[in-house]
Fold this protein.
Amino acid sequence: MIEKSNLARPQKRFSPLKSILIGAVIGLIIISLFVFEVDKPKQEWGKLWRVRPLIVEPVAGALGGLFFHFMNYMGSKQAVNRTMAVVLGIVVFIMVLWLGIVFGLHGTILN
């Protein structure tokens, strides 16, 4: 009788859609902290100044989440070192969130 080791079992991976949704929600939460904090917006920003950041940042977060999922997948396939894949995924995710904040708030709060 041959015993099956735990290494032979395939790991359950979550779908890319779940990573995209998690990234978008994180982006939405972060940008909401900036956008809804403004009590008296300047008139030159316009009436709907909050729309652009609330669209751009979740899209950026979704792209960052997709990249993180890709790096997690590559690390599980042993194409790259698992630790390096996770660290790179986190660093790129944070950079994409930062760029989303900059692009979303350009011309309003960051001007």
